[in-house]
Amino acid sequence: MPFDKEQYLSRIGISQPEASAEGLACLQSAQLRAIAFENIDPLLGVTPSLDKASVVRKLIFGRRGGYCFELNGLFGQALGALGFHYTPVLARVRMGQPEGGPRTHLCFLVETETGVWLADAGFGGPGFSVPLQLEIGLEQTVDGEIFRIRQDSLFDERVVEKHTADGWFALYGFDRASVRFCDLEAGNVVCSSWSQSPFPFHLMMNRCTPGGRISIFDTNFTETQSGLSETRIIETPAELGRIIVDEFGIGIEPAMLDAIAARLNFQRDDELA
Fold first, then answer.
1. Which of 26, 105, 143, 208 is catalytic?
2. Would you tell me the crossing angle of helices 21-34 and 68-81 to the nearest 10 degrees?
3. Alpha-carbon gap, residue 120 to 109, rounded angstroms
4. By the 8 A CB rule, do 159 and 149 touch?
5. Taking the model in full, what pTM does it have?
6. pLDDT by residue for the chain (273 residues), tens digit each?
7. Which member of 26, 41, 107, 120 is catalytic?
């Protein structure tokens, strides 16, 4: 199933943007709002397929989301089809740690008329909804939150950081090593099945909203707006299903919801009645 830019643009709800810095920001923001980060397949023991046709079938026609290799796999196809000049890079996720793990996050460096930008439509954590300018030390405000890219000379990486009440929080670090499809396939296996990866063990979902994001971690549902977050507990499988469908725009079959609920150790709704 080949990539069709009109079907993609319809899926994310925008008309074709120019291959410019402004168009890039529009494209990334639109995909992040329309197509959720979700790891349902790895949670249920399935390693997602990364071939282009499978990604298109799942995310565009199946109305599903995915995790970084799928989301940015689709985003990369869109960048190429829309005339952007881009280079894939693999990153080591840090999430506050002084160094990252294996290269298991895909993102892109995109050249535009205003310089090079770090574009990422697949980071399921507290990421940035529009691309960041690739300028070391420049503090950049996105939806009321401040980000920067710093050079880590110890690991020869550029590190994306977010400012928090406790200081700068490292999201991930990347270098300019060349990326081949076999690297993505290896990272995909690590993410989906490694004992130290969170994806086979926890339900993780994220979608950008105007001025913020919504997210799920297991049975916690969090809404963030202008940097302020509120979390509540999801009480039942039926409530979880409603949130997945209504808030994240993902259609799931009853059998899949039952399997997710079992992995999260929910009681069945009929047991709670």
1. 105
2. 140
3. 9
4. yes
5. 0.95
6. 789 999 999 999 999 999 999 999 999 999 999 999 999 999 999 999 999 999 999 999 999 999 999 999 999 999 999 999 999 999 999 999 999 999 999 999 999 999 999 999 999 878 999 999 999 999 999 988 899 999 999 999 999 999 999 999 999 999 999 999 999 999 999 999 999 999 999 999 999 998 889 999 999 999 988 778 899 999 999 999 999 999 999 989 999 999 999 999 986 555 544
7. 120
Q: How far apart are the first and last CA of the chain?
A: 44
What is d(CA 142, CA 72) in angstroms, rounded to the nearest whole number?
A: 20
- HSE on the CB side for 213, CA within 13 Å? 25
The yes-or-no answer on residue 107 being catalytic is no
Active site residue 68: yes
What DSSP element (H or E) covers 245? helix 237-246
- Answer yes or no: 163 catalytic: no
In one letter, which amino acid is 201?
F
Active-site option among 26, 41, 68, 143? 68
Between CA 234 and CA 134 the distance in angstroms is: 39
